[in-house]
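Example S7 (structure tokens).
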């Protein structure tokens, strides 16, 4: 690893500090630094896979030397390195380079060179030695006075005809101003610089690249971000007559046709991968749609069952209330009958006492003797 000292560079201070606190802040949720950015919640990290396909994979070949600026924890490094001859990673943060190196070594990736940058230029990279330039989620944190010199460096290190991809923040959309308003006080006055955004417009980025001799081929805008895909021209600007002559020669050049054919094949491969991604997304959509329908059907069945249970509950409650009322009425009637029985029992006891008292009285004895005497007289007459 390059041992250049850049301790006074504020970008180095910020990102070295971020690396040192990362484990405490994110280590419980992520294994590698950088995975906390652009997390779409899928185990396969489909969004990262998509970005890699459209911003890197379609441009790189196995014979290329590639420069990646700002590897962070090596998220893109481990994707690019296996597909190229050599990958150079350059960062102002020694902590970030160390994390990237450890991640690559853990995967057995050995074709990566690690360079500690000075924060001003790509001093360690030779002129026209890079076949593809890549930097994602980095230059949105770099100020204009540093961004422009880096664009000049991109022109210097790229071979003629080579492509590059660089990711920036833009202020030409409402989402950007929402973010600016939300974070303005935090960054104002230089109190904080870690993670600060520096905004451009897509047109300003195009003019900057053209001023540095680079041609914008594509600009992909998403939310408040713009990814610029650019190219270093193969030759200096020519007069129309010369250009027409060279185009005629180019059309008849077998080598150029072969190169074009290879580009077409890579494009077809890229389209196929996009189609596969589309098919996967569609299959996931249909699966979730079917599951949603099944859940909806199950919910409807559950609601119907709950309604039946509610009706049964209402019927049982009505029956319970009827039987409860009847039981109360029966209990009342039983109590009334018991009271009457008690009263009758008392009357019977009083009558019995009265009869007993009469039978034991003199009057009753005389009455009994009189009836016996009458029976005797009737027998005498007979």
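Recovered sequence:
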């Amino acid at each position: 690893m390059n041992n250049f000292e850049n301790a006074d560079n504020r970008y180095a201070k910020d990102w070295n500090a971020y690396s040192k606190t990362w484990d405490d802040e994110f280590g419980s949720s992520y294994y590698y630094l950088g995975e906390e950015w652009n997390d779409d919640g899928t185990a396969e990290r489909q969004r990262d896979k998509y970005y890699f396909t459209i911003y890197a994979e379609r441009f790189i070949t196995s014979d290329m030397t590639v420069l990646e600026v700002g590897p962070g924890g090596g998220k893109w490094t481990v994707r690019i390195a296996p597909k190229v001859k050599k990958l150079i990673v350059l960062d102002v943060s020694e902590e970030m380079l160390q994390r990237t190196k450890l991640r690559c070594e853990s995967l057995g990736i050995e074709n990566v060179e690690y360079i500690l940058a000075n924060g001003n230029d790509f001093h360690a990279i030779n002129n026209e030695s890079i076949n593809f330039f890549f930097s994602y989620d980095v230059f949105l944190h770099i100020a204009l006075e540093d961004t422009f010199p880096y664009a000049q460096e991109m022109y210097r290190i790229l071979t003629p005809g080579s492509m590059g991809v660089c990711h920036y923040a833009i202020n030409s959309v409402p989402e950007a101003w929402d973010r600016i308003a939300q974070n303005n006080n935090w960054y104002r006055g230089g109190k904080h610089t870690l993670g600060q955004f520096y905004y451009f417009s897509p047109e300003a980025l195009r003019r900057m690249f053209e001023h540095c001799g680079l041609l914008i081929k594509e600009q992909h805008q998403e939310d408040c971000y713009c990814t610029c895909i650019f190219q270093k021209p193969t030759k200096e600007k020519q007069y129309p007559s010369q250009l027409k002559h060279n185009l005629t020669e180019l059309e008849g050049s077998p080598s150029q046709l072969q190169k074009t054919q290879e580009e077409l094949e890579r494009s077809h491969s890229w389209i196929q991968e996009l189609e596969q991604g589309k098919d996967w997304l569609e299959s996931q959509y249909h699966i979730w749609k079917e599951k949603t329908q099944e859940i909806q059907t199950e919910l409807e069945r559950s609601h119907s069952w709950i309604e039946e249970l509610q009706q049964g509950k209402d019927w049982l409650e009505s029956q319970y209330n009827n039987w409860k009322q009847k039981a109360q009425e029966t209990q009342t009637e039983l109590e009334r009958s018991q009271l009457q029985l008690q009263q009758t029992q008392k009357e019977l006891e009083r009558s019995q006492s009265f009869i007993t008292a009469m039978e034991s009285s003199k009057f009753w004895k005389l009455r009994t003797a009189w009836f016996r005497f009458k029976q005797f007289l009737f027998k005498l007459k007979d």
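Notes on this example. Residues 321-381 form one domain.
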